[in-house]
From TrEMBL, chains A, B:
Pfam families: Usp. It comes from the Eukaryota. This is UspA domain-containing protein. Gene3D superfamilies: HUPs. CDD domains: USP_At3g01520-like (cd23659). Residues 23-162 form the UspA domain. InterPro entries: At3g01520-like_plant, Rossmann-like_a/b/a_fold, Universal_stress_UspA, UspA. Coiled coil: none annotated. SUPFAM superfamilies: Adenine nucleotide alpha hydrolases-like.
Length: 175, 175
C-alpha cells in the first residue's frame, strides 16, 4: 500500500501588473514547475495545499470608483476581496483537477510572510513552495522578500523557485 | 514514454564531529527526506547528482601524526583527502543502488558555496537540495551559511532542508 501522499504547501499571490484574478508570474511558474519536476506522473503521491494571503488595504479604499457610505458597504467590499481571492485560487484548483492531483486551497489575511509561516506550523505540510521574483541586491534591501523570510523561519523544508529570466518583466518589481 | 528523469543535485559534506567518512547530520537528513518525500515510489523518475566540495586546508597540515618531508608526501596526502571524499560519497551512492535510484557523484575542491553555484551552472540540474544546520541569528551573522548563499545565487530552484530539532547536537555548529 502506498504511504500517505507528500503534502506540498504552495504560496500563491496575484499579479502586480494585471491584478486579480490573475496569478503572479512567479506563482504560476512555481506551480507548473512543481507539477512537472516533482509530481511528474505520480499524481496520487502528492497533495497540493494552496495558500493565498491577502494583504489588508491600509485605508480600506482600493476601488476608486466605489462609494462607501455605510458599514454595509465595507462588508460588501470585504466579500468582494474574498471573491477575488477565490477566483485566483480557482485557477490552481482547476488545473489540479484536470491532471488528477488532489488539492485544497486556503485564503488568509495578514502579512504574507508571517501568515505563511504560521500556516506551516498549523497545517504541517511536508514542504513549502514559494516563487520568488528574484530581486536584485538593491531592491532586496528595501523590499525584503517573502521567500527569504520563509526559508529562515518556516518550520519545514522550503523550495524557492526563482522566476526564469525569460519570464521576467522589465521592471523586476512587476510580477 | 516517460520523460527524462528529474535531476536533483544534492550537496553533501562530512560530519564536523565525527569527520570523514561520516556524512553530516544535515546531509544525511536532506538525502533521506528527498527519497521519502520527493522520489517516493517513482524511482525511475529521478536521478540524484551528489556533489561534495572539499575545502583545501589553509596550511595543508591536518594529519598531526603524519610527517611531510618531500613533495611526494603532499601528493599522497592529496590522494588521501580524495579517498576520504570518495568514502563519504560511497554512503550515498550505495543507498541509491539499494533502492534503485540512478545517481552520480562528484568531488570538487574550493569554497563550497561558490563551487556549488558554479556546478549548478555547469551541470544544470532541475533543482538543488541543501541541508542546513539551522543556525540561530547570532551564529548566522558571523558564519553565513552555504544554503542562504545558494538560495540567492544558484541558477535553479533550491530546496533548503533544516536539520530537525531532535537530530541537532547541543552545539548548533556541530553537525
Amino acid at each position: 500500500m502506498e504511504r500517505e501522499p507528500t503534502r506540498i504547501m504552495v504560496a500563491v499571490n496575484e499579479s502586480t501588473i494585471k491584478g486579480y484574478p490573475n496569478a503572479s508570474i512567479s506563482s504560476r511558474g512555481a506551480f507548473e514547475w512543481t507539477l512537472q519536476k516533482i509530481v511528474r506522473s505520480n499524481t496520487s503521491g502528492f497533495k497540493l495545499i494552496f495558500l493565498h494571503v491577502q494583504v489588508p488595504d491600509e485605508d480600506g479604499f482600493d476601488d476608486t470608483d466605489s462609494i462607501y457610505a455605510s458599514p454595509d458597504d465595507f462588508k460588501i467590499m470585504e466579500r468582494k476581496d474574498r471573491a477575488r481571492g477565490l477566483h485566483l485560487l480557482e485557477y490552481f484548483v482547476t488545473r489540479c483537477h484536470e491532471i488528477g492531483v488532489s488539492c485544497e486551497a486556503w485564503i488568509k489575511q495578514g502579512d504574507p510572510k508571517e501568515v505563511i509561516c504560521h500556516e506551516v506550523k498549523r497545517v504541517q505540510p511536508d514542504f513549502l513552495v514559494v516563487g520568488s521574483r528574484g530581486l536584485g541586491p538593491f531592491q532586496r534591501v528595501f523590499v525584503g522578500t517573502v521567500s527569504e523570510f520563509c526559508v529562515k523561519h518556516a518550520e519545514c523544508p522550503v523550495l524557492t523557485i526563482k522566476r526564469s529570466a525569460d519570464e521576467a518583466p522589465q521592471d523586476p518589481v512587476d510580477d
